[in-house]
Amino acid sequence: MSLPAAKVVFLDDAIAVVEKPAGLVVHPAPSHRGPTLVDQLGEILGGGDPERPGIVHRLDKDTSGLLVVARDPEAQRSLAAQVAGRRVERAYLALASGHLESRTGTIDAPIGRERRRRTRMAVAGAGAREARTHFEVLELLPASSYVEVRLETGRTHQIRAHFAAIGHPLVGDATYGRGEDYGLGRQFLHAHRLGFTHPVSGERLEFSSELPAELSAVLAKAREG
After folding, report:
1. How far apart are CA 107 and CA 151, in angstroms?
2. Is 64 contained in some domain?
């Protein structure tokens, strides 16, 4: 079964902004040696680790949405510094199970590897590092909460682990929740807004991405209850 291709939404000599589809791994890793976003983009990418050229931030395999990648070493260093300095805006649309207790809030809890299941992350897990997730409830649905989530830090599985930790795992998340919600087959999580400073021009760039069709369909079902 072939994977859907990433869509390039912006391209110049220094950077590319792409929409990654769900099901596609960003770069090769010991646990994954199949097709990746790096393979698809090929010579577009440049700078940094040869195994993950041009990659400065990631999305989980089953998370869709926007990524910025570098095309040369100078751009890679600039973008990596912006990510490390928390100057890259990353906002997501998510559907969390149940009703959140407040309309806005911050989940401030360090995340590390779960000690017994190393493929999962957990609050106060092994090697935990600071992690902060800000959220705003956009809509309360009969059995779930449609939220916009903004990352301050970018730990592995941060949004998914944080929402599970407060008792509201993301709809469709088989790792941190029930997984079978609405027959979705992946977590309801989409990187819908991305903002950063262009590494050459210094211009502030902002991009947005609509929900994929399968998430829009689930949202409609969730509204019906």
Report:
1. 10
2. yes
